[in-house]
Design a protein that fits this description.
Elements: H1 2-19, H2 25-36, H3 42-60, H4 76-96, H5 113-136, H6 144-172
């Protein structure tokens, strides 16, 4: 139903455009000024200058970083490098690299489906939060929702490992009489 409504809206929009091509002129101007010509605007140039200053501070501190909130970067990656340095960026990268790992073997039957669902939804939340932060955040701190989701992910993995050990112990341990 949603696909059909979207298709209908696209067909109506194309029909209006074919009938009067100047109908979308304001939308086209907005798209050009906000997306395509952003770097040529005064704010785009100011953001580029702040990013260059943040990267310069990274090299001035010999890759140690200037501390949380001490630089004004417009991108999360630049903020991470300039604020927490190379060592902090590696530590944060280790946390981010925990997100792609799975909770267990798919369809093995050893992991509770509710634990798997909680794990996968928390992982999607953390990834979505990081994508949003990488676009709009100027701070190296990924935010509390990221750490809550990461803690949930790790707790689900611990729970899944504990339940698979109990299942393995129950089937492979000989019975004593």
């Amino acid at each position: 139903m949603l696909f059909a409504l979207t298709l209908l809206a696209v067909i109506i929009a194309f029909s209006v455009y074919l009938y009067n091509d100047r109908q979308f002129a304001l939308f086209e101007e907005l798209l050009e000024s906000v997306v395509f010509n952003k770097q040529s605007s005064a704010s785009g140039q100011a953001r580029a200058q702040w990013n260059l200053m943040s990267l310069q501070s990274f090299f001035d501190t010999r890759t140690l970083g200037v501390g949380f909130g001490s630089s004004r970067a417009s991108r999360w990656i630049v903020a991470v490098i300039s604020q927490i340095g190379l060592l902090g960026a590696r530590s944060l990268a280790a946390l981010v690299m925990e997100l792609p790992r799975s909770v267990g073997q798919p369809r093995s039957g050893q992991v509770d489906p509710e634990v798997r669902a909680l794990h996968d939804s928390a992982r999607a939340c953390a990834l979505a939060w990081l994508v949003g932060a990488s676009i709009v955040s100027g701070s190296a701190d990924p935010g509390l929702p990221f750490f809550v989701a990461l803690a949930t992910i790790l707790a689900c993995r611990t729970q899944a490992q504990g339940s698979s050990l109990r299942i393995g112990e129950a089937t492979s341990t000989p019975v004593r009489q």
